Amino acid sequence: MIKPKVLCMIDLRLETGALAPLRKVARVDHLPADRATLLKRIGDYDAFLGNADLKFDQPVIQRAQRLKVVASPSTGTDHLDVKALEKRGVALLSLTREYALLDTFTATAECAWGLLIACVRQLPAAFETVRRGDWARERFTGRQLSGKTLGVLGIGRLGKMTVEYGKAFRMRVLGCDPKPIRIAGVEQVDFDALLAQSDVISIHVHLRDDTRGLFSRKAFAKMKRDVVIVNTSRGAIIDEAAFLAALKSGKVAAGGLDVIDGEWMKDITQHPLVQYAQSHDNLVISPHIGGATVESIAGARIFMAKKLADYIAEQNWK
After folding, report:
1. Beta strand 252-257 pairing with 227-231
2. Which of 79, 172, 204, 234 is catalytic?
3. Is 213 strand, coil or helix?
4. Which residue of the set 172, 263, 271, 301 is catalytic?
5. What is the band of 295 on the pLDDT scale with cuts at 50, 70, 90?
6. What is the pLDDT of residues 161-193, one digit of tens each?
7. What is the C-alpha separation between 170 and 165, in angstroms, rounded?
8. Using CB atoms within 10 A of its CB, is residue 39 exposed (0-12), middle (13-18) or buried (19+)?
9. Based on the number of CB atoms within 10 Å of its own CB, is 188 exposed (0-12), middle (13-18) or buried (19 or more)?
10. Does the annotation mark 288 as catalytic?
11. How far apart are CA 255 and CA 247, in angstroms?
């Protein structure tokens, strides 16, 4: 029986043996993540294993005539054209519901808290002055978190971690989620109350039709002045034009973003938020590194390669 062909475009330097189970059931080509190569080669493969840094959209899918399954070691799927894959009958494997594995990954919640600290203490700007030889101690007077109100949108895996961080920092903690919240020290509120009462809002919901653009001009209008926004979920949850206006007006004191809408742009310096951050200290942006720790990267990629191998082994492809 001829083995199916798999194209892997994931950097596996942190776990060089991850593809071993896959090579037992398939012929695997491991290439660097490159869109031009993907477009040129995808038509030769039955399966694709790729990360969130590479868009798998309609132009790619049109060329993928043999494709039967796509696997991505990520919880989010906005880098994939899910509807087009479903229409073509292509299976999709991700980490979205792999709860046992995901509960061991704390990296994104830790990153969210790091971004919050960076915002309220102006750490990036303070560090830059030191690098220039300027010991500007009182120029960077920040704010403490103790006594402030933390609003967490989405009390799932990461939201539950984040509320505990807030409690440890002696904050009043609000949680907003459609499901009942039964966590000591966390007050459940609706979205409007979260907006109105929070000094800090941390976003931990998936990008869906009902969350796209959720943080709109109307939402920002309902917030306290000098609120801090932290987003490690997906960029499109925030209306970025409204967010920029709120930053410029002072309605939002600072923003800490690990994600932006359009992070696949060829020239990221042309993104409006990146351009704003180049000349303003109240916006801290990291390049979607929330889950990028040695432990989480290696664990996710090993798991997904094995999951794809198991899926292929169960099929009867010709």
Report:
1. parallel
2. 234
3. coil
4. 263
5. very high
6. 999 999 999 999 999 999 999 999 999 999 999
7. 9
8. middle
9. middle
10. yes
11. 8
Distance CA 75, CA 234 (A): 11
- Give the pTM: 0.85
CATH number for the domain whose boundaries are 5-102+295-314: 3.40.50.720
Of the candidates 172, 271, 288, 301, the residue annotated as catalytic is 288
Q: Please indicate whether residue 15 is annotated as part of the active site.
A: no
Active site residue 280: no
Q: What are phi and psi of 28, to 5 degrees?
A: -115, 125
Distance (Å, whole) CA 224 – CA 236: 22
Q: Which two tokens stand for residue 131?
A: 């690098």
Torsion of CA 113, 114, 118, 119, to 10 degrees: -30
Can you read off the two tokens belonging to residue 112?
């969210």
Average pLDDT over residues 123-132: 95
Q: Are 109 and 165 in contact (CB under 8 A)?
A: yes
End-to-end CA distance of the chain: give it in Å, rounded: 9
Q: Where in the chain is the domain with CATH 3.40.50.720?
A: 5-102+295-314, 107-285
Tell me the two tokens of residue 288: 């979607």
| H-helix or E-strand spanning residue 172 | strand 172-176
Q: Within 10 Å of residue 19's Cβ, how many Cβ atoms?
A: 23
Architecture of domain 107-285: 3-Layer(aba) Sandwich (3.40)
How many Å apart are CA 70 and CA 9, to the nearest integer?
Answer: 12
- Strand arrangement of the beta sheet that strand 200-203 belongs to: 186-188, 172-176, 149-153, 200-203, 227-231, 252-257, 283-285
> At 102, which amino acid appears?
L
Distance between CA atoms of residues 167 and 80, nearest Å: 36
DSSP-derived 3-state class of residue 224: coil
